[in-house]
Amino acid sequence: MTILLDIDGLQVEFASRHGDVVAAKNVTLQLSAGEILGVVGESGAGKSTIGNAAMGLLERPGRVAGGTVTLEGRRIDNLADEEMRKLRGTRISMIFQDPLTSLDPLRTIAEQLVTTIRTHLPLSETEARNRARRLLEQVGIPDPAARLDHYPHQFSGGMRQRVVIALALCAEPNVIIADEPTTALDVSIQAQILDLLRSLVKDSGAGMLIITHDMGVIAEIADRVAVMYRGEVVEVGRTQKILGNPDHAYTRSLISAVPRSDVKLDRFPLVEHIEAAGARGQLDLKTHWLGQTRNYERVEGPLLSVRDLQLIFRTGSLFGGGQHEVRAVDGVSFDINNGETFGLVGESGSGKSTVARLITGIYRPNAGQIQFAGADLTKLATRAELNRYRRQMQMIFQDPYSSVNPRMKVRDIVAEPIRFHRLSNSRDETRRIVDDLLDHVGLGKRAASKYPHEFSGGQRQRISIARALATRPRFLICDEPTSALDVSIQAQVLNLLKDLQAELGLTMLFISHDLPVIRQMCDRVAVMRHGKILEIAESETLFERPQHDYTRHLLHLMPKMTTASAEGSRVSL
Amino acid sequence: MVFFVLKRLAQSVLVMLVVALIAFALFRYVGDPVNNMVGQDTTLEQREQLRDELGLNDAVFVQFGRFIGNAVQGNFGQSYRLREPVTDLLAQRFPATFELSVVSAILALAIGIPMGVYTALNRRSILSRSFMTLSLVGISLPTFLIGILLILIFGVILRWLPTFGRGDVVSIGGWTTGFLTKSGLESLIMPAITLAIFQMTLVVRLIRAEMLEVLRADYVKFARARGLTSRTINFSIALKNTLVPVMTIIGLQIGSIIAFAIITESVFQWPGMGLLFIQAIQNVDIPVMAAYLLLIAFIFVVINLVVDVLYFVVDPRLRVQGR
């Protein structure tokens, strides 16, 4: 097979004040016609750098410091800007992660397509428009003639990604680099887009380099995989071989960190090769402040009981011009027993996070009851009463970057709930408690005097966890706590949550769109869609014998790392 | 669209009413209007009679209603100082301020926008750096100092340009313009530059900051990945997206050019509304002050409305939400 893209010994360096940082070290990859080559690695592994370098789109201060990039027999890494520009779009093109921001918001799809087409091909306005229409048809956009004159915001996320793909295909490039093309999409949309990419490659005979952090995507679509770790390609090979029988220790630990969808494990096997977690400090919980959480009144029956919860968002204006009702939560009921982890799973917009906000009192429901520890939270009137219950429930948010105040030291972030609820007797005691909490979540006491920006995403999530523990809660709401994290970091954080739950007897509401994560974490699961709960079951039952069609659909779409290995035996991961 | 404009109009009326209330309070309660109008030898009976004639004994809201009724008809009473109807005074002065402001605004935009775009696109070039240094000077130097320096250099030392007034003006149907005579145009140069410099440096910095932001956006990166020419990327994509958020501030700046021409007008003895207003303050000429306040508020409200409608035209995302 002809080799379309040949990257040989590529070295990319970023100049910085502390000397050059090597983002890609001696990377050698070959992409053949009709092939999909996956490049997988965690954030900072240098996988996007490879794509940008091949496109000639490295941003300052990055530069190619060594090696060559050859496109269809022609060396391109040393081309002048204008020469390289002419190749982009016609011979080599790129698709980016976020379809919401990849399109110019002020121009119609037609304008954007036509400009791109006419930049590369000698076509008239009308011919270019016809071509644009055929392209939209090709990427599976229904009613392309009418959709042409729409603006990007009038398309859904998945449709927008299709438009992005159409734009990348305008002048029939032979090499397509897809940088995390499905990361911002829901699973069902992800499956469709991957299907589309696969069939495009098959029909056109082009080669595709797909860059992703998601082993599931690799298993789904790639013929071969290159695994990257700290700027180096540690292993290249056929997908089945790499997933089933990896040679490199890093690949093994990466694969073991991926939550399994087929069986529930007690913990994620510990993964070396990843950010040092720091040893967790041990506390004698019988005598320590944190352990004195058991003085809450005992509850007979479920700790949290939600009945017929309803929340309606009204949009449109007061003057009555086209009022609109969205039933974000529509008649939701469930119970969470003491000490259990209850999962809430659904795609974006299903209302799962809204339920969490209703329980914590951020939103007030239009109807329904929230019984927590015997009290109806929707009926509490005074702030003092509310705070008594708020202290017992805490929340961990999705985005570790925006959920901690960047201007406060970690000590103050963690101490804030203690001070607010007056849970300690002196400043010294608060200080000691904060130190112990930080130690307990694996950050170490020294973290206290630092600011959040000095920590990685995973470490920040630990700060959030320490802050949540600071009120000695008995109920913890985790809203997508790991979806912004790399898999290995996710494995660590999930392990930490499991450990804490076991030690402190916490009850958890665990919200996620990620079914394998749900399977690893939860005892019981509710499946949500369009604000309604479709099915509640023990998590093992749900995964083995789903009752509802939609659940089956979701499970079917879930990217599985189960692939037939080269030797023909089934390997499941 | 119509609904959106109507809603904005309703809000504008509300804003004008609030400003009118302030202007009315100024007129009615800062000093005694009667005291301001009459001489010292007026007897108490005469004063009381005048008070009655002016309706100052009526209930406050009746007076406010009357004030608004008059204001809508363009009647703001008599200037205490000049003994002329305030409306006539403002109408005489308005063309001078308007011409000065328009020329300044055009200068600020016509020079500021290209400079902003240039400095954003060529961040590291020596020319960009000198532009940025210059703009820092422009932003930090107070307007009156710039005016005085210009007068010193071009008026006193070089004797190229007149240092005060509007020069010869031509009257066309009640509108006096300095655009048609040589001395009128010459007189306009220095005040217009003085007034424009601050706005211009602001525009440069705004455009530059916003454009740098836009150039980092994913859609610009994706446009580059598709091999579009830098011309298309910089001007059809980046500049258009830059102007959307900048539009609001630029609109308000144009308002403030008109409103704060006061200093420039004082320095150059420009016979505009600003100068009239300064003199009104010095003489506690309340009716003039109140009318000026309302007029400026009106200009701001109109500009805001225009900007809102422009937003609507430029940004397709708003059009859908408005529906």
Automatic annotation (TrEMBL), chain A:
One of its GO terms (molecular function) is ATP binding. It is a peripheral membrane protein. Keywords: ATP-binding, Nucleotide-binding, Transport. InterPro entries: AAA+_ATPase (IPR003593), ABC_transp_ATP-bind (IPR050319), ABC_transporter-like_ATP-bd (IPR003439), ABC_transporter-like_CS (IPR017871), Oligopep_ABC_C (IPR013563), P-loop_NTPase (IPR027417). The keyword Iron does not apply. It is found in: Cell inner membrane. SUPFAM superfamilies: P-loop containing nucleoside triphosphate hydrolases. Residues 7-255, 306-555 form the ABC transporter domain. The keyword Ligase does not apply. PANTHER family: D,D-DIPEPTIDE TRANSPORT ATP-BINDING PROTEIN DDPF-RELATED (PTHR43776:SF7), TRANSPORT ATP-BINDING PROTEIN (PTHR43776). Belongs to the ABC transporter superfamily. This is ABC transporter ATP-binding protein. It comes from Tianweitania aestuarii.
TrEMBL record, chain B:
Gene3D superfamilies: MetI-like. It is a multi-pass membrane protein. Keywords: Cell membrane, Membrane, Transmembrane, Transmembrane helix, Transport. SUPFAM superfamilies: MetI-like. Belongs to the binding-protein-dependent transport system permease family. It is found in: Cell membrane. It holds the Pfam family BPD_transp_1. This is ABC transporter permease. PANTHER family: ABC TRANSPORTER PERMEASE PROTEIN, DIPEPTIDE TRANSPORT SYSTEM PERMEASE PROTEIN DPPB-RELATED. Residues 94-311 form the ABC transmembrane type-1 domain. The chain crosses the membrane at residues 12-30, 100-121, 133-161, 188-207, 243-270, 290-314.
